[in-house]
């Protein structure tokens, strides 16, 4: 069943795709995993990642849903040549796909975040597949692309999610180790606090959030640069 847009936005703003402070995203045990193949699966299951092993001094900026369409953000991505990853939900983006076409034109990548933003864990295979493959079809019709990366809403998933994602052409399920909170600080799902090379960072977005997406990103870039890091293209490392 399709969630009303108001309910979707409420879930984004109150719970956030990155969950509450200190909340660990993931499966039942809350850990990013690298499953090989489920019994009866037709494709190898995609790995679940919140950090990328790399010697490069890079972190990866990811943005969810598509509720916040700050026009200045397009200029920031263009000027800084930021290879950000946008995980889009169709029912949240609504008529705003043109904004993301402009972002894609200046270097952002477009990835899958389901049609309607449900919590997938525990749903039957058919429902999970419809959410993931349905958004693959939407993005293919809008942009002519078939995303390889998928982020489950709220960071929750199960083995059925991985089966459905694999059958929809997904090659990696992307969580996050760090998340930008409402105060502009970073919270971490595991390990020692502090950005380190290979971290995937979630930047929550919402129509009424303040400061703006551009301002929040600029502050985050200062912290990244202070650590001697830069923004990398996630798709090049997965």
TrEMBL record:
Taxonomic placement: Bacteria, Bacillati, Actinomycetota, Actinomycetes, Kitasatosporales
Coiled-coil segments on the chain, per record: none
Gene Ontology MF terms in the entry: hydrolase activity
Protein's UniProt keywords contain Phosphoprotein: no
Signal peptide: none
Name recorded for this polypeptide: Polysaccharide deacetylase family protein
Domain NodB homology: 57-232
Pfam family, one: Polysacc_deac_1
Region (Disordered): 22-45
EC number from the UniProt entry: 3.-.-.-
CDD domains: CE4_NodB_like_6s_7s (cd10917)
InterPro entries: Glyco_hydro/deAcase_b/a-brl (IPR011330), NODB_dom (IPR002509), Polysacc_deacetylase_ArnD (IPR050248)
Matches recorded under SUPFAM superfamilies: Glycoside hydrolase/deacetylase
Keywords from the named record: Hydrolase
Record's keyword annotation contains DNA-binding: no
């Amino acid at each position: 069943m399709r969630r009303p847009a108001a309910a979707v936005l409420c879930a984004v703003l109150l719970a956030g795709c990155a969950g509450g402070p200190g909340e660990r995203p993931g499966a039942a045990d809350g850990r990013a995993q690298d499953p090989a193949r489920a019994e009866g699966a037709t494709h190898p299951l995609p790995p679940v990642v919140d950090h990328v092993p790399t010697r490069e001094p890079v972190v990866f900026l990811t943005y969810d849903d598509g509720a916040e369409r700050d026009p200045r953000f397009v200029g920031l991505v263009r000027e800084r040549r930021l290879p950000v990853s946008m995980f889009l939900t169709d029912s949240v983006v609504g008529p705003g796909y043109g904004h993301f076409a402009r972002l894609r034109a200046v270097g952002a990548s477009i990835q899958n975040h389901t049609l309607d933003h449900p919590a997938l864990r525990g749903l039957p295979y058919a429902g999970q597949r419809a959410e993931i493959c349905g958004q693959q079809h939407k993005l293919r019709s809008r942009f002519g692309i078939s995303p390889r990366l998928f982020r489950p809403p709220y960071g929750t998933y199960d083995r059925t999610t991985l089966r459905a994602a694999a059958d929809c052409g997904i090659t990696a399920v992307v969580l996050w180790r760090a998340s930008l909170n409402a105060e502009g600080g970073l919270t971490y799902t595991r390990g020692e606090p502090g950005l380190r090379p290979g971290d995937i960072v979630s930047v929550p977005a919402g129509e009424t959030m303040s400061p703006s997406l551009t301002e929040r990103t600029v502050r985050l870039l200062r912290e990244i640069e202070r650590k001697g890091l830069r923004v990398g293209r996630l798709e090049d490392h997965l």
